[in-house]
Amino acid sequence: MQYHYRRPRRKVVAEINVVPYIDVMLVLLIIFMATAATVTLGVKVDLPQSTAEALPSDSKAPLIASIDKQGLYYLDVGKSADTALNANEMSALVKAQLAADKDAQFVVKGDGDVPYKRVVELMVLLQESGVPSLGLMTDPVDNEE
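User: That's the sequence. What structure does it adopt?
Assistant: Structure tokens below.
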């Protein structure tokens, strides 16, 4: 008696194997994510050089909030004009000035060597203290050619 082992026939699968395609897509996704992090956001802007109008002479003198190279705050009010202030002292002094005169004008005077971030922090501090609008103090442009 002889037994013949009969191998079952496999049916032909008519489906597309998508696993390799998914692998390729994941690799492409990783590449795009890595390159997107290196793309510079923002627009290159060449700021114009011009003179700005001075404040009208009939208005009250604005209060000058300054920041120096070391990042110390100053507010040009009476005896405290030369006294360095921390953020809490500056906020309290600004609130006191606004309580005395709600129409007080404020101007930010930042040292040219101070990083932009520090000047913005001063502006945010002033606005959080209740200052409705701010001006920026600049030196006039020399038109020597």
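The first strand starts at residue 63 and ends at 67.
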